[in-house]
Design a protein that fits this description.
Blueprint: H1 3-15, H2 21-25, H3 29-40
Helix pairs in contact: 1-3
Protein name: BH0509 family protein
InterPro entries: BH0509-like (IPR049615)
Organism: Metabacillus bambusae
């Protein structure tokens, strides 16, 4: 993941107050992508 993409996803997670800066700094790129997907991506099941 590019640094710009990581910073964008980290910013989103911090704004939603799901994690603090210390927790996020210890996460791998894969973990950040997972949590961003978990909290921010719409699913077809969200609309059922």
């Amino acid at each position: 993941m590019s640094q710009l993409a990581r910073e964008s996803k980290v910013k989103s997670l911090l704004e939603k107050q799901k994690f603090n800066q210390k927790e996020i700094s210890q996460m791998t790129d894969s973990q950040i992508e997972y949590y961003h997907w978990l909290y921010f991506e719409d699913s077809v099941y969200d609309y059922m």
